[in-house]
Amino acid sequence: MWKGRFAQDTSSLVEQFGESISYDWRLFPHDVAGSIAHARAQLKAGLLTQEEFSQIESGLREIEKDIKGGKFEFRTSLEDIHMNIEAELTKRIGAVGGKLHTARSRNDQVATDTRLYCRTQIDEINAAISTLQKVLVNQSGKYAASVMPGYTHLQRGQPVTVGHHLLAYVEMLQRDKGRLNDCRRRLNVCPLGSGALAGSTINLDRAGMAEELGFDGITHNSMDAIADRDYIAELLFIISMCGVHLSRLSEDLILWCSSEFGFVSLSDAHTTGSSLMPQKKNPDVCEITRGKTGRLVGNLMNLLVAMKGLPITYNRDLQEDKPPLFDSVDTILMVLAVNTEMIAAMEMREDKCLAAASDPMLLATDLADALVKSGVPFRSAHELVGKAVAESVKSGVPLDELDLKQIDPAYTDEMKSVFSLETALAARTNIGAPSVVNVKREVERWRSCL
Ligand code: ARG
Fold first, then answer.
1. Which of 144, 148, 167, 410 pairs as cysteine with 353 (C-beta 3.0–4.6 A)?
2. From CA 157, how far away is CA 367, in angstroms rounded?
C-alpha cells in the first residue's frame, strides 16, 4: 500500500509484530458498511461513475459474503482488515478498486469501524442484561415472602426477604444498562471525512455518510476524531462495573451454597464435582465469574495505560485497543449467558434462610424502635437494648424471653410483640424497604418495565 517510498520489503518479523488481522478481521461487516457509505459519497461528489460505484458496492458485498462463509483467506502481509478488504476488492474488480481510498485514511476508517462495532455490541450486552434481570425478577417473585437475614460486615443484621436481596442486583444491572445507553449516545457520531488527521482537500458529504451508517451526527474536530478512544475506555469501564456486580452476586451465591449457610441449591448442570472428593458440589460458575472480573478490570487498565502518554492524533499504539475490547465484550456476554441459565435453575432453601433469620437478636433494632415510639430518645433506647443484649449473651436466655421490665422500667409488655419476623417485615413499608407487599409491588414494576 506504500510501495512508492520504500526500497526494501518489510521484515517478516515486523510483519508478524505489527499485524492486527488475526483479531481485527471481525470488524469486517462494519468495514464493508463504512466503505460503501464512503463510496456513495464519492459517487455524489462526482468522483465515481454510477457504474464504478456499483462495481465497488457489489465487490464489497461479495467479499463480505465470502468472509461470513469462511471462504476468505486473510493475509498477514496485508496487516489489517482494512487493507485485506481493499486489496481483495482491487484484485476482483481491477483498478477502479484503487479509487475507494480517495479522501480517506485507515485512521478515520478504523475509528468508524470501532464505533460501529461498539454500538452493535452495546445493543447485544443490553439485551443480555435484560434477560438476566428477568430471571432475577422471576426468582424474586417466587421468593418474595421468604425471610432471610440481611448482612453488614458479613454479620447477621436485620431480616429481609430473598426477593428483596435479589432485586438489589436487578437495580445494579439497570444502572449498567443506563451507562451503556449513555455511552452509545455519546459514541454515535461519525468520524468519516477526518482523513489521516486533517480532513481532506476533497470534500465529501459527511452528514450523508453518517446518516447511511445510522450515526446521530458527525464529529467536529478531525484531530480529536482520529485520536479519540474515550468511548472504548467507557465501554470497558461499564463492562467492568457489570462484571463487578456479577462478581458480588457470585460471592453471595458461593457463601449461600456452603454448608455453613445452606441457603441455596444450585443445579447439577451448573456445578461441578471433585476428581478426588466424591461428596463435593462446587459453585465453579460463580467462581469463574468472580475470576473473569479481574480480566475485565485488567482490560480497562490496559487501554487507559496505552492511551495516557499518547500525543494526539493517531499512534500505532492505538491498535492495541482492540484485543482488550474484544475480550471484554466476549467475556461479559458469556458471563451474562451462563449466569442467566444458572440463576433460572437455582432453588432457595427457604427453611434454612428462615432458620438463620430466626435469632431474636436480629430484631434488637426493632425493640429500640419500640422504645423510641414510647418516647425514649434513640440513643438511650440503643443503650437500653444494648443492656438487654448483654444480659441475653451472659445468661444464655434468648432476647425475646428476658424479663425486660427488670432491666429497665421503660420497657412494657407490649414491646415483646416486636419479636415476630412477620411483624418486623410488615412494618417496613416505606418505599425501598423490604416488606413483602413492597417486594411484590417491585416485582410487578420490574415485570412491566422489562
Ligand atoms: N490496524 C490499525 C489500527 O487498528 C489501523 C490504522 C492504521 N493506521 C496507520 N496509520 N498505520 O489502529
1. 148
2. 14
- Which residue from 425, 409, 413 is spatially nearest to 376, judged by alpha carbons? 409
DSSP character at residue 287: H
Pairing of strands 217-218, 189-190: parallel
At 89-141, the pLDDT tens digits run 999 999 999 999 999 999 999 999 999 999 999 999 999 999 999 999 999 99
What are the structural domains, with CATH classification, of the chain?
A: 12-102 (1.10.275.10), 107-355 (1.20.200.10), 359-437 (1.10.40.30)
Q: Which protein residue has the closest C-alpha to ligand 1 atom 10?
A: 107
Q: For position 104, what pLDDT does the model report?
A: 96
Measured between its terminal Cα atoms, the distance across the chain in Å is 50
Measured N-to-C along each axis, helices 106-142 and 436-449 cross at an angle, to the nearest 10 degrees, of 140
Q: Which sign does the torsion angle of CA 55, 57, 59, 65 carry?
A: negative
pTM summary value = 0.96
Of the pLDDT bands very low, low, confident and very high (cuts 50, 70, 90), residue 180 is very high
Phi, psi of 272 (to 5 degrees): -130, 160
80 C-alpha to center of ligand 1: Å?
8
Query: Grid coordinates representing 264?
Result: 441455596
What pLDDT, in 10s, does the model give residues 192-249?
A: 999 999 999 999 999 999 999 999 999 999 999 999 999 999 999 999 999 999 999 9
Residue located nearest, by CA, to atom 11 of ligand 1: 316
Residue 4's pLDDT band, with cuts at 50, 70 and 90, is: confident
Calpha distance 179→239 (Å, rounded): 10
Q: Report helix angle 230-256 to 284-308, nearest 10.
A: 160
Q: Nearest to residue 255, comparing CAs of 368, 135, 165, 373?
A: 165
